[in-house]
Amino acid sequence: MGRADHWGDAETASETRIRLIALDLDGTVLDENLRIHPSTAPALKKALSSGRFVTIVTGRMFASARRYAHELGLGDVPLVTYNGGLIRTAISGHTYFHRPVELPVARGVAELTRDQGFSLNLYVDDQLIVAEVNDRARFYMTIAGVEAHPVGDLIDYLGEDRGRRPTKMLVVDEEARIQELKRSVEERFGKDVYAVTSYPYFLEMMNPGVSKSRALDALARGLGVAREEILAIGDSFNDLDMLEYAGVGVAMGSAPEEVKARADYVTGATGEGGLAAAIERFVLEGQP
Questions:
Q1: 20, containing H or E segment
Q2: Which residues of 167-201 are buried (b: 16+ CB within 10 A; e: fewer)?
Q3: What's the CATH code of the domain at 14?
Q4: How many structural domains compose the chain?
Q5: pLDDT tens by residue, 99-127
Q6: Residues of the domain holding 181
Q7: pTM for this structure?
Q8: Whole-angstrom distance, CA of residue 29 vs CA of residue 40
Q9: Is a pLDDT exceeding 80 seen at residue 263?
Q10: pLDDT digits (tens, 9 = 90+) for 196-241
Q11: Label partner for 242 (CA 20 to 30 A): which of 183, 197, 265, 266?
Q12: Measured between alpha carbons, how far is residue 60 from residues 39, 111, 154, 192, 280 in Å?
């Protein structure tokens, strides 16, 4: 295992009993082949049986995330999805929080991406909406395990009279083009859009009042859990605010160096059982 520069913070924080474990999905729970390491489910089961709360905090759609919550046996836990844009319970489907992108902003993003030759995904009512089902849409469908709904012109779809505010907007493209688009979005929309990369080839755009850390804070308050009692584990730039918010923030071994540097602790890679090792280290160590 590696160690972040501020390893001492993790040592101090680990003395506080962790009560809430917040897990990113892709690159954390799931490896590059969308598989869960054999050590993960037993570690989570042990944490749950000891009275801890375990939740998923992901950029994915709720429809995509809930299947993994079921597979991991998390129960009817509130799941933080769309990078914090929607909090909904895994089984009963009760919505605690939803903050979509405002329509004028969504239409502006649709115009910008169309003019620059990008394919845009919209997420409305937990459905994947696209102009057409092209290679980019098929790629996302394969990763997320959802079907796309083609509607033709997205700007027309986002018309003022329809009230179809997207929870999230996403573009899949080459890394260099994604970085160019991110700069364009930030220059044009400023604080009206929260734009962040998850994968290097994913640009995700949400309401500026949305982030993983804000959603995790709201969830923790609802559960009566203090910030210091949270263990957050992630691997990408959209996890940074969550890792820095939690009492203990753990970066996966496959995370970019900037993410590792800003975490309290660096565990092994997903395919090496790094997630279970972190839970053992900060939650289960010393327990029977």
A1: strand 20-23
A2: bbbbbbbeeeebeebbebbeeebeebbbbbbbbeb
A3: 3.40.50.1000
A4: 2
A5: 999 999 999 999 999 999 999 999 999 99
A6: 103-206
A7: 0.90
A8: 8
A9: yes
A10: 998 889 999 999 999 999 999 999 999 999 999 999 999 999 999 9
A11: 183
A12: 23, 24, 21, 21, 26
3-state secondary structure of 53: strand
For residue 277, the tally of other CB atoms under 10 A from its CB is: 18
pLDDT at 10 over 50: no
Q: How far from 183 is each of 104, 196, 265, 287, CA to CA, in Å?
A: 19, 11, 30, 48
CA nearest 219: which of 63, 54, 69, 93?
54
Percent of the chain with pLDDT over 70: 92
Answer yes or no: is 1 within a domain. Answer: no
Domain closes at, from 181, 206, 231? 206
CB 90 within 8 A of CB 77: yes
Q: Which is more confident, 201 or 14? A: 201
Q: How far apart are CA 173 and CA 171, in angstroms?
A: 6
Residue 2 lies in a domain: no
Per-residue pLDDT tens over the stretch 70-102: 999 999 999 999 999 999 999 999 999 999 999
SS3 91: coil
User: Rg of the chain over CA atoms, in angstroms?
Assistant: 19
Please say whether the beta carbons of 64 and 144 come within 8 A: yes
Tokens of 202: 């994913």
Q: How far apart are CA 276 and CA 270, in angstroms?
A: 9
